[in-house]
Design a protein that fits this description.
This protein is of the alpha/beta class and 194 residues long. It is built from seven helices and five strands; from the N terminus they run αβαβαβααβαβα. The protein has a five-stranded parallel β-sheet, with helices on both faces. β1, α2 and β2 form a beta-alpha-beta unit. α3 runs parallel beside α5 and α5 runs parallel beside α6. The chain is globular. The chain starts with a helix and ends with a helix. 37% of the residues are buried.
């Protein structure tokens, strides 16, 4: 009995990351992004997990929603980290459609018995207060309604430091990615360690 429970505990979990350029190592050296750092942290802490990075630069919530069924079927994740919405926001797309797409993705994953970590994002202030607040609050609402842990703001501790951004002022440098991982880890760790 003890042996069985020990092996059940140590069964490696599959972690699927579905994101955009912020998770796809856009403009930085391969292996320096937060997803690669997450893999290394799991190894260092002797947590048996396989991390699949299915992030695509430029991805919107509709693109993620379209791709997700095949990803879930192929990888059968135990945990999905969902980091999408920034490109919808930057294009000024309706918050309601991003919310609908994210909700559908969380639902798909949960139906396949995967736990979801939602990664929240903020829009720059030049998008207007009504839009930026509505966009930011969407993640909290989804988190509450779907009972999914929320990383309130992926770029906390990064967004206000211009030196941590590439020349386009949109994409973080490699130096920012350990901070991003530190923002995500507290919500993710309890799921992967249980």
């Amino acid at each position: 009995m003890l042996a069985a429970s020990a092996s059940a505990y140590s069964a490696p979990k599959t972690v699927l990351v579905v994101g955009d350029s912020l998770s796809a190592e856009y403009g930085i050296t391969r292996g320096t992004g937060w997803v690669a750092l997450l893999e290394r942290k799991l190894k260092a802490e002797n947590v048996q997990a396989k991390v699949v990075n299915a992030s695509v630069s430029g991805e919107t919530t509709i693109g993620g929603r379209t791709r997700l069924p095949a990803l879930l079927e192929q990888h059968k994740p135990d945990i999905m980290i969902l980091e999408l919405g920034a490109n919808d926001g930057l294009r000024g797309l309706p918050v309601a459609s991003a919310e609908s797409n994210l909700r559908a993705m969380v639902s798909m994953a949960q139906q396949k018995k995967a736990q979801v970590v939602l990664v929240g994002m903020r829009m720059p202030p030049n998008y207007g207060r009504a839009y930026t607040e509505s966009f930011f609050n969407m993640f909290k609402k989804l988190s509450t309604e779907t009972k999914s842990p929320l990383v309130p703001f992926m770029l906390e501790g990064v967004a206000d430091k211009p030196a941590l951004f590439q020349q386009d002022r949109l994409h973080p440098t490699a130096a920012a990615h350990p901070i991003i991982l530190n923002n995500i880890w507290p919500q993710f760790a309890p799921l992967v360690k249980k």
